[in-house]
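Submission sheet (multi-component)
Chains listed below:
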Amino acid sequence: MKKLINNPSDVVADALRGMAAAHPGLLRIDHENRIVFRGDAPVQGKVGLVSGGGSGHEPMHGGFVGPGMLDAACAGEVFTSPVPDQVLAATQGVDGGAGVLHIVKNYTGDVMNFEMAAEMVTAESGTEVVAVVTDDDVAVQDSLYTAGRRGVGVTVLLEKIAGAAAEQGRPLAEVADLARTVNANGRSMGMALTSCTVPAAGKPTFDLPEGEMEIGVGIHGEPGRRRVPVAPAREIAEMLLEPILADLDFGAGDGVLAFVNGLGGTPLIELYVMYAEVAAILERSGVTVARSLVGSYMTSLEMAGCSVTLLKVDDDLVRLWDAPVRTPGLRWGV
Amino acid sequence: MKKLINNPSDVVADALRGMAAAHPGLLRIDHENRIVFRGDAPVQGKVGLVSGGGSGHEPMHGGFVGPGMLDAACAGEVFTSPVPDQVLAATQGVDGGAGVLHIVKNYTGDVMNFEMAAEMVTAESGTEVVAVVTDDDVAVQDSLYTAGRRGVGVTVLLEKIAGAAAEQGRPLAEVADLARTVNANGRSMGMALTSCTVPAAGKPTFDLPEGEMEIGVGIHGEPGRRRVPVAPAREIAEMLLEPILADLDFGAGDGVLAFVNGLGGTPLIELYVMYAEVAAILERSGVTVARSLVGSYMTSLEMAGCSVTLLKVDDDLVRLWDAPVRTPGLRWGV
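Outcome: structure written.
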């Protein structure tokens, strides 16, 4: 195993020390509970946004904490859900009196632990907590860690859009409705050229021989739809977009936000090659691209591969996407 | 070879198509000459900034084109210098009447081709062109493609800082002086855990056995100082920082910009682990960190590894670093 780490058991704690050192002021890190807080949390009168999940997907979620996006992110061990006590502490820490939104990817452990934390918060302080679960991955119905579809790339877009709505002062019910709309209007699918290696395991999560790729892979290396020979980027783009376009009518409406995401081991030059093919297919399919995002925002450690996410957007969603954001991972307008 | 590409010979052209599709308005791409232009180039009365070099280092340089940074970037083939005609067309395309700065990394082919282009421009149109060459890599004196030190991470910081100065309307001589100051005040060193594979070659540039790493590696996989067993991140940080701190007194003065850069195949979680160790060493060494940058900004295709760059900064440099920038690769304040 070749990684830039110290002890495999310290990876998450060490990375949080690095984030604290790199982003003083912007972030405040609770090292004991492994929570990344917005530096000025709680913001009085604003809906607080809490997300989190297993580590190994950076910049998601800790890198999306800051004005215009999340108020706190709970970092679990690598590929392991955060525990209820973490989510409880995060929720209490961002409670500015306007309620708290939990943004949860649909994995069994995450859903359960966020639910338990929400019950604890409500019992302790009466704070209103609403959870929105993302389940945008069209690859598989149920999977290793999931009942129903997995939550993947849409989560990034949802955190940005709901974060902007909360920053504008919209109330909890409205922010939660918006988040549900984003999840309902987004679809994703991913593929891997290589496995990743969980530090504590020390060996690749799965075997993927030279010459083969996994279509529909999950962000923890969960099996996808099928193994096929490595193909040109334009065919890979077809394999990912065809099921996405078949699942929801992206041609109707104002346009889409098209997101090509790297899984951690894939360089940007390849993501732009993929985006060229995605854009060409969308044009042929009569789908208008309103906004795009190309980069590694939801990773699977050092896995080589990518995912494609489409999100149907209207004017309100585009304005919220364009609104200022200042986080380590996404920043503009400020 | 597992890559998200079509034909190996089309990688650069395909990636430029992707950039054009992803950043309409912000960028204008001359596909024939493989030049990424700022959408509104030439900006009248502003010094034009042109850089470029071999592809495979994305987002450098094309991803640093936009207001507050470069006016144009010439994309060579992977790890191959752009040709003089490209640089000529780029220089003419950004000439707003205030002269043009060439920012050139110290590799023999790049230096020669930018020099030839500068002579051609001056002969054709009388445009004043000044070149600043970066040579911040402390690892080796001469190397496979270099007389003198190689130009690496400082180039990114220089393009941002000189870009901000040009945007403020400073004259060519002043922007060039500033660029030379940045280069003189910056030092870098890199390391690799794995090789990369040039698409046209189809096999790894060098062999790096399991359990070994290359200290002082170049951004094209050029040999570094030594092969050593893979070590914990804190020891790797020492191996990179010790020669940097020995080469220039970073303790004197106002502080440094500390930059931990990923080489393309290394995920962000590992870069933050590295940054934690870099920050700890700087604190012990009495070096104040004024600003930081953590991410993959100057890559070597899918190479796993990182580089560390320190830049001594004063108030003027910090203000220029903080000034608004809007490019695909670096963006804030706008």
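Remark: Residues 195 and 206 of chain B are 6 Å apart (CA to CA).
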